[in-house]
Design goal:
- It is a single chain.
- This protein is an alpha/beta fold.
- The protein has four helices and six strands.
- The chain has a single domain, classed as Rossmann fold (3-Layer(aba) Sandwich).
- It has helices at residues 14-28, 69-77, 97-108, 126-142, and strands spanning 3-8, 32-37, 51-55, 84-91, 112-113, 118-121.
- Strands 1, 2, 3, 4, 5 and 6 form a six-stranded parallel β-sheet that branches.
C-alpha cells in the first residue's frame, strides 16, 4: 500500500472542498492518504509518503498564495526530483494561467508530474468534485 499526502491552502473553502474530494478518490484506490492544511506539513514529513498532491488557488496576479503556500512550496520543490506529484486548485480570473506556470515549475524541479494539474474556475460544483475524486483515484493507481 502506498501513502499519499494531500497538502493544500484554502482561503474561501473551494480548494479545501477539492482536497476532500481528492482524498475520497485516493481512499477508493485502497491506498493510504493523509490530508494536511499547509501549516500542518513540513519538509521533514515528506519522508513518510510515496506521492504528493498539492493544492492552492490562484491569487492576485495568477500566483500561488504568497504568505504561506509559496514559502512552503519553495522549500519542498528542491526535494521533488523523481517524486510523483499532482497539482490542483481554483481560480476566479485569468483562465488558470497560474496552473500552467506551477506545472512548469514542478516539472523543472524534476517531479514526475501527473497530468497538467486540475484547475477549477470559481467554486467546484458536483461535476468538478467528481473530477477531483477521479484525480485522486487515478493518481493513487499510478503510484
Amino acid at each position: 500500500m502506498k501513502k499519499v499526502a494531500i497538502v493544500y491552502w484554502s482561503g474561501t473553502g473551494n480548494t479545501e472542498a477539492m482536497a476532500k474530494a481528492i482524498e475520497c478518490g485516493v481512499r477508493k484506490s485502497g491506498n493510504a492518504v493523509n490530508l494536511f492544511a499547509v501549516e500542518q506539513f513540513g519538509l521533514a514529513d515528506m519522508k513518510d509518503f510515496d506521492g504528493f498532491i498539492f493544492g492552492c488557488p490562484a491569487m492576485g496576479d495568477e500566483v500561488l498564495e504568497e504568505g504561506t503556500f509559496e514559502p512552503f512550496f519553495t522549500e519542498v520543490e528542491g526535494h521533488l526530483s523523481e517524486v510523483p506529484v499532482a497539482l490542483f486548485g481554483s481560480y476566479g480570473w485569468g483562465g488558470g494561467i497560474w496552473m500552467k506556470s506551477w506545472s512548469e515549475r514542478t516539472r523543472a524541479a524534476g517531479a514526475r508530474l501527473f497530468e497538467d494539474g486540475l484547475a477549477v474556475e470559481n467554486g467546484p460544483g458536483d461535476e468538478e468534485l467528481m473530477a477531483c475524486e477521479q484525480l485522486g483515484l487515478s493518481f493513487a493507481h499510478s503510484l
